[in-house]
């Protein structure tokens, strides 16, 4: 969707424009390049780009790369690709690390004003003296160092005179503040580590909470939109802007993060799935990453319709994964050609069909979208049907093929089962049928009716194909065991790793129509009675396609 539903952020922006507080709207999407983007990020991307656009504003893509240890250019490149694929175009591209010099200068401004000091306490000591929600923290013994001494020590921190953890620079605010984030937060730490952008130029790095407001101010961001876990940081955000005397004043606003049932949305946890080999990479079609969704066959349009429906509010909520499925079906319904695929083949010989003959039957490509036209599919004496569409001893209400019963072959004829051929162990290997030429599809035959319609593929020209069938990676533990998996903490004793779904991937071999021999990665189809499938970009080979299940056809989901 190219707009956002009515929401509190738009109301704020409307007011800000009306009052003259801002002249134009500038937002940013600020990922840390420490992993691939996931569906939660899609919401943040959509909000930032779409809201700015609704007010004729602009959006920056900024890599928040202030932590050298976990960041990598592979992630930088994947993030750019994913944002573009979603259909968004940034006005400016920035790296927070390009501002390290300015951030350093602004820290000196703080020191000179007596608003920052070098602390020699260890990280453990600093943590232990922070206090609690009910107890104030304790001042550091180094808190009252002179400006001169602080300037000297900070310069020597930069020059590499100290080891990691030996010293930090802290903001000097209030160790008794009811907001723990204001109890002299650390703003610089020593880290002798190479950075993907700045190399070995720096051995001190700014902390995220200090760096982020400066990045926003440097770029002239007007509305800094983030998720509600940063709400308690807002006072420090404003403190940094004011005390460092930044000429431009961005404001932070928080919206609720996107949480989905049976879904992990944390780069750290997704990385664990990759590193442990539970999935075959960040773009495994089971991953909730943008690249995984893309490889699976989900479209940007479906993702955007989904986040639109999820809405923009401050409330915490978990959205049913089935809602995403709903929007995928909605988007593919009219776009994907409908063809036949047999995933578990059983050979059928039509004994009264002339040997060696093949005819071409006309089939519509999408019964709901006539513009997609028609194709021709071969029919002959031997076809494959789905193994589950035949039963030797069916229960009542089974209307598919069984001895003596007649069914319709989609786009073709009625066939009637006469014989069952078994191997030595008694497994059904082939069934023999007769067809009635009068019943050809489209001929207007009304002589008699059948209750079941099944799909098929002509055997001699069928294209062998692999089908990869997916279920969510995480079991529905809330339904199964009443367990609430807290996405951030992973529960008390058990984590999401204890609830992996052993059936999340099933690989089967079958056949598709001959017209699908030369499909390309990302081509999408609806396979009659099965669901929507996408050609896999990693495993498909010329003439031997591999199809990923995007989503099944059935849904119990109601909006
Ligand atoms: P993760 O915990 O997965 O690493 P993050 O919040 O640390 O996510 P960043 O790269 O720092 O990831 O996030 C970039 C932006 O995306 C931030 O503004 C963040 O608020 C937003 N974001 C991250 N996860 C979600 C989510 N589930 N829903 C909405 N926005 C999100
Ligand atoms: Mg982060
Ligand atoms: Mg995070």
UniProtKB/TrEMBL annotation:
GO terms for molecular function: ligase activity. It is found in: Cytoplasm. Its main location: cytoplasm. Gene3D superfamilies: Glutamyl-trna Synthetase, Domain 2 (1.10.1160.10), Glutamyl-tRNA Synthetase, Domain 3 (3.90.800.10), HUPs (3.40.50.620), Ribosomal Protein L25, Chain P (2.40.240.10). It catalyses: tRNA(Gln) + L-glutamine + ATP = L-glutaminyl-tRNA(Gln) + AMP + diphosphate. Residues 24-333 form the Glutamyl/glutaminyl-tRNA synthetase class Ib catalytic domain. A motif ('HIGH' region) lies at residues 31-41. It is an enzyme of class 6 (ligase). A motif ('KMSKS' region) lies at residues 264-268. Residues 336-436 form the Glutamyl/glutaminyl-tRNA synthetase class Ib anti-codon binding domain. Keywords: Aminoacyl-tRNA synthetase, ATP-binding, Cytoplasm, Ligase, Nucleotide-binding, Protein biosynthesis. L-glutamine binds at residues 64, 208. Pfam families: tRNA-synt_1c, tRNA-synt_1c_C, tRNA-synt_1c_C2. Monomer. NCBIfam families: glnS, PRK14703.1. Belongs to the class-I aminoacyl-tRNA synthetase family. This is Glutamine--tRNA ligase. It comes from Paenibacillus woosongensis. The lineage of its organism: Bacteria, Bacillati, Bacillota, Bacilli, Bacillales.
